[in-house]
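ARCHIVE CARD
Drawer: 12
Card no.: 0347
Subject: one protein chain, sequence and derived structure
Cross-reference: see card 0346
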Amino acid sequence: MILSHNQILILTSVMCEIESKCWIWKKTINANGYGTLNNVYYKNKRAHRISYEVFVGPIKEKMQINHICKNRSCVNPEHLEQLTHAENGSRNKAKHYNSFKTHCIRGHEYNEENTVFTIRKIGHDGWALRSCKACRKITSKQYRDGLSPKRPGLEERFMTKVKKQDSGCWEWQASTFNGYGKFRYKGEMRLAHRISYKVFKQDFDESLVIDHMCCNRLCVNPDHLQAITREENSRIGNKNKIEGRKENL
């Protein structure tokens, strides 16, 4: 099989995850977490749409490309599908990352006997909120005993938003910004990989940059992170760009 120039361009710009089979985009990630490509052929076009076009076929007018894997930085054509705007919106609402969780934050299983659904409605839109019966009983008893409900610790709360991959990466499953995970820390939304380094490894000067040695922005594994200066980070970034260009030649 002879690959086209654009197919080779996509394949040399990704990192393949063994477990998830996602093709993680290694180049520019926009503010919404999608890979983008900017060259003589494409002007800041989303990489997953390019991948679908070159490996699968043309995208119909007004159709959107949905990530079946729910990983916005993935460009594996087998993980992509064409949907209308309405289909894509309803599917993403129904398949929020929390809906994939099998256990609550205290470790109780979400099964038929231990799950309570509460219907919330705004206007014509409605959705079901899931809660744990066992946790409700614990909270009620604590209130009856005059105790405040025990909130999960920082590390426990952090790890519920992480999925460990075979590559060793801890991929962030919650909200993102510019391809990086976001986590609420001391009342503020912070970059998750910086909080991971601070909590699991050591504190650091806020002027330092936390670099991903694995080149995966979604990764929050502290063993894949290093604290470096902005100048060192720029040198590493320039080196990676040069090596990427050499691979494309």
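Annotation on reverse: The longest strand covers residues 115-122. The chain has three domains: 5-94, 106-151, 153-249.
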